[in-house]
Amino acid sequence: MSAIVAFRDVWYRVSNRDVLRGLDFEVAAGETLALVGPSGSGKTTAVKMVNGLVFPTRGEVLVEGRSTTAWDLIRLRRRVGYVIQEVGLFPHWTVARNAGLVPRLEGASPAVVEERVRQLLAEVGLDPTRFAGRYPRELSGGERQRAGVARALAADPPLLVFDEPFGALDPVTRLELQRQFLALRGTLHKTAIFVTHDVREALLVGTRVGLLEEGRLVFVAPPEEFAASPDPRVRPFLACLDWKLEA
Amino acid sequence: MRSALAGEIASLSLEHLRLVGVAVVIAAAAGISAGVLMTRRAGLRPWALGFANVVQTVPSLALFGFLIPVPLIGGIGQRTATVALVLYALLPILRNTLAGILGVDPAVRESALAMGMTDRQLLWQVELPLAARTIFAGVRVATVTTIGTATIAAAIGAGGLGVFIFRGVASVDTAQILAGAVPAAAMALAADGVLGWIERKLSPAA
Question: For residue A165, what are the domain limits?
Answer without folding.
Answer: 3-79+160-246
